[in-house]
Amino acid sequence: MSATPACPQCTLENTYPDGINYVCADCGYEWPMNETAATEEEDGLVIKDANGNVLKDGDSVVLIKDLKVKGSSTTLKQGTKVKSIRLVGGDHGVDCKMDAGNFMLKAEFLRKV
């Protein structure tokens, strides 16, 4: 297996380095070598809490603010500890299970414990 990445445009692996760029021999697409590291990090789904700490699956977090649940009279209280979070894509980046039920939360309202 070669050390050069597959082409992001046509996904074929017939690529080679040329100066500071990678070039695809099949479609002719060129992209910078340093962009490859950035796209691999983006695929990893980096979500940060209110303090800027990177969250991972299985982390424990604490709510930093009272949150009203839409469509319900339930309020999630500040200081509530949530164990074993799961990171997901989309608007609400954290999926968790609490005593009150399953919720999707925004990371900006959480602090890593």
Structure explained in plain terms:
- Strand 4 and strand 5 form a beta hairpin.
- Residues 36-42 have low confidence and may be disordered.
- The chain has one helix at residues 33-43; strands spanning 15-18, 21-24, 30-32, 47-48, 54-55, 61-63, 67-68, 75-76, 81-82, 86-87, 94-98, 101-105, 110-112.
- It has a three-stranded antiparallel beta sheet with strand order 1-2-3. Strands 9-6-13 form a three-stranded antiparallel beta sheet, with no helix packed on it.
- It contains one helix and 13 strands; from the N terminus they run E-E-E-H-E-E-E-E-E-E-E-E-E-E.
- The longest helix has 11 residues, at 33-43.
- Helix content is 10%, strand content 35%.
- The chain is mainly beta and 113 residues long.
Summarize the topology.
Layout: E1 15-18, E2 21-24, E3 30-32, H1 33-43, E4 47-48, E5 54-55, E6 61-63, E7 67-68, E8 75-76, E9 81-82, E10 86-87, E11 94-98, E12 101-105, E13 110-112
Antiparallel strand pairs: 1-2, 2-3, 4-5, 6-9, 6-13, 7-8, 10-11, 11-12
